[in-house]
Design brief:
With about 100 residues, the chain is mainly α. The protein is built from four helices and three strands; from the N terminus they run H-E-H-H-E-E-H. Strand 2 and strand 3 (about 75-80) form a beta hairpin. The mean pLDDT is about 90.
Amino acid sequence: MELITKTDEICVSFMRELKEIECAISSIFKDYHPVLNGERYLTDRELSKILNISRRTLQDYRTERKIPYYLIGGKILYKESDIEKILNDNYYPQQDGSV
Protein backbone atom coordinates (compact mmCIF):
# COMPACT_ATOMS: atom_id res chain seq x y z
CA MET A 1 0.00 0.00 0.00
CA GLU A 2 1.31 3.41 -1.00
CA LEU A 3 1.41 6.23 1.55
CA ILE A 4 -0.04 9.55 0.34
CA THR A 5 1.38 12.72 1.91
CA LYS A 6 0.15 16.27 1.82
CA THR A 7 2.83 17.14 -0.78
CA ASP A 8 1.69 14.50 -3.26
CA GLU A 9 0.07 15.95 -6.39
CA ILE A 10 -3.22 14.12 -5.81
CA CYS A 11 -3.50 15.60 -2.32
CA VAL A 12 -2.47 19.09 -3.47
CA SER A 13 -5.01 18.92 -6.31
CA PHE A 14 -7.76 17.74 -3.96
CA MET A 15 -7.07 20.56 -1.49
CA ARG A 16 -7.05 23.14 -4.31
CA GLU A 17 -10.44 21.93 -5.58
CA LEU A 18 -11.81 21.86 -2.03
CA LYS A 19 -10.75 25.50 -1.58
CA GLU A 20 -12.48 26.45 -4.85
CA ILE A 21 -15.69 24.79 -3.66
CA GLU A 22 -15.44 26.61 -0.33
CA CYS A 23 -15.05 29.96 -2.14
CA ALA A 24 -18.04 29.21 -4.38
CA ILE A 25 -20.24 28.32 -1.41
CA SER A 26 -19.13 31.43 0.47
CA SER A 27 -20.01 33.69 -2.45
CA ILE A 28 -23.46 32.09 -2.74
CA PHE A 29 -24.23 32.66 0.93
CA LYS A 30 -22.79 36.18 0.96
CA ASP A 31 -25.72 37.51 -1.08
CA TYR A 32 -28.30 35.03 0.20
CA HIS A 33 -31.44 36.46 1.78
CA PRO A 34 -33.74 33.98 3.47
CA VAL A 35 -37.41 34.39 2.69
CA LEU A 36 -39.74 35.24 5.57
CA ASN A 37 -43.41 34.55 4.81
CA GLY A 38 -42.62 34.72 1.11
CA GLU A 39 -40.89 38.11 1.39
CA ARG A 40 -37.26 39.13 1.07
CA TYR A 41 -35.94 42.09 3.03
CA LEU A 42 -33.07 44.36 2.07
CA THR A 43 -30.78 46.36 4.31
CA ASP A 44 -30.04 50.03 3.82
CA ARG A 45 -26.64 49.20 2.34
CA GLU A 46 -28.03 46.59 -0.07
CA LEU A 47 -30.85 48.81 -1.35
CA SER A 48 -28.59 51.81 -1.87
CA LYS A 49 -26.26 49.60 -3.90
CA ILE A 50 -29.13 48.13 -5.97
CA LEU A 51 -30.63 51.56 -6.72
CA ASN A 52 -27.22 53.18 -7.11
CA ILE A 53 -28.09 55.96 -4.67
CA SER A 54 -26.46 57.01 -1.42
CA ARG A 55 -27.63 55.84 1.96
CA ARG A 56 -28.22 59.50 2.77
CA THR A 57 -30.69 59.70 -0.13
CA LEU A 58 -32.49 56.67 1.30
CA GLN A 59 -32.65 58.48 4.63
CA ASP A 60 -34.21 61.48 2.87
CA TYR A 61 -36.76 59.18 1.20
CA ARG A 62 -37.67 57.74 4.60
CA THR A 63 -37.97 61.18 6.19
CA GLU A 64 -40.16 62.39 3.33
CA ARG A 65 -42.25 59.18 3.53
CA LYS A 66 -41.45 58.33 -0.09
CA ILE A 67 -40.35 54.81 0.74
CA PRO A 68 -41.75 52.33 3.29
CA TYR A 69 -39.39 50.68 5.75
CA TYR A 70 -39.14 48.75 8.99
CA LEU A 71 -37.05 49.93 11.93
CA ILE A 72 -36.16 47.05 14.23
CA GLY A 73 -33.64 47.61 16.98
CA GLY A 74 -31.92 50.39 15.08
CA LYS A 75 -31.70 48.30 11.89
CA ILE A 76 -33.60 49.48 8.82
CA LEU A 77 -35.14 46.93 6.46
CA TYR A 78 -37.04 47.36 3.21
CA LYS A 79 -39.51 44.84 1.84
CA GLU A 80 -38.36 43.92 -1.65
CA SER A 81 -41.94 43.80 -3.00
CA ASP A 82 -42.55 47.37 -1.72
CA ILE A 83 -39.50 48.61 -3.61
CA GLU A 84 -40.58 46.80 -6.78
CA LYS A 85 -44.06 48.36 -6.52
CA ILE A 86 -42.62 51.87 -6.11
CA LEU A 87 -40.40 51.36 -9.15
CA ASN A 88 -43.27 49.99 -11.24
CA ASP A 89 -45.64 52.77 -10.16
CA ASN A 90 -43.09 55.40 -11.15
CA TYR A 91 -42.11 53.92 -14.50
CA TYR A 92 -42.57 56.22 -17.48
CA PRO A 93 -41.96 54.49 -20.81
CA GLN A 94 -40.04 56.24 -23.53
CA GLN A 95 -42.21 58.31 -25.85
CA ASP A 96 -41.76 57.68 -29.54
CA GLY A 97 -41.07 60.66 -31.79
CA SER A 98 -44.32 60.47 -33.73
CA VAL A 99 -47.24 62.78 -32.92
